[in-house]
Amino acid sequence: MDAHSPADEHPRKAFGWAARDTSGVLSPFNFSRRAPGEKDVAFKVLYCGICHSDLHMVKNEWGQTVYPVVPGHEIVGEVTEVGSKVTKFKVGDRVGVGCLVGSCRSCDNCNNNVENYCPKSILSYGAKYHDGTMTYGGYSDTMVTDEHFIVRIPDNLPLDAAAPLLCAGITVYSPLRYYGLNKPGAHVGVVGLGGLGHVAVKFAKAMGAKVTVISTSPNKKNEAIENLGADAFLVSRNQDELEAATGTLDGIIDTVSAQHPLLPLISLLKSHGKLVLVGAPEKPLELPVFPLILGRKLVGGSCIGGMKETQEMVDFAAKHNITADIEVIPIDYVNTAMERLSKVDVKYRFVIDIANTIKASS
After folding, report:
1. Beta bridge partner(s), residue 219
2. Neighbours of 271 (CB within 10 A)
3. For the chain, which end, N or C, has fewer CB atoms within 10 Å of the first or last residue's CB respectively?
């Protein structure tokens, strides 16, 4: 074998499932992990969530995928080894890794604990690491990560249902706080009741907000109000419902990653209200400017969160018993799960039981 093949480039043997081409089909894959350096933590992967971006990446829908790709950035497990200068973790700790495994650690963003906005941030899979090798994600048996990018999972959070917090959770928690929508009594809209949306409802409620879910599916009303605790529900295609709610929301977290009109959402905002986009549609959306000017309204974005805030989010979730609603699957079901995810057929997050179902002999 070529000395630079994925199986030989590092000393530690590793095993996962990878996509080899734009079909996005995942299959067993032998590769390798680096030996833990002095600041590295090695851990056995127990569970890994399936994020919508995994689906985009395995099919190269964003045009940046390098094959073979081992996806997965909602990774939880148990520490097996720590480097000599690791101070925060010890063998046996419950830990997680989200979307980031590296950054420059010296720019303004890094110094301000928002490594997620570092121009040189390194994603957990499909990116080049400091040593020039590719990063491989959590659809695999082991991880080796710099301790700075590792999150501690509190004991009262079940690992499987906590995994999606590392991407979906922080993606909605960060903008709720940054845009000031975490104040008791704030009225927050959540657009789309999927992996991100259902967690956004839980976090906003725990922060003391009044929450209105906005969805294209009338059949999700009962689920939103009875199971997730939302206060109100609007069908986004129902003009009468939207008109009745005009100017009632302080802010909106929009989790939809498909094409959709922004004007109806902007109309729901009070003056000085904020529409925050966290879903990533492939094509640009149309932005009507007059309603922004006339109401001094903002349209903003947000992308995951820094490590300090990610730990705060997990601790907040533990305190308020917030977890994702999940369907646990074996690794060999992963291609079916991806198909179902593309049809939005999951409530609300698939999580792969890595420890019990990934076998190096697959």
Report:
1. none
2. 9
3. N
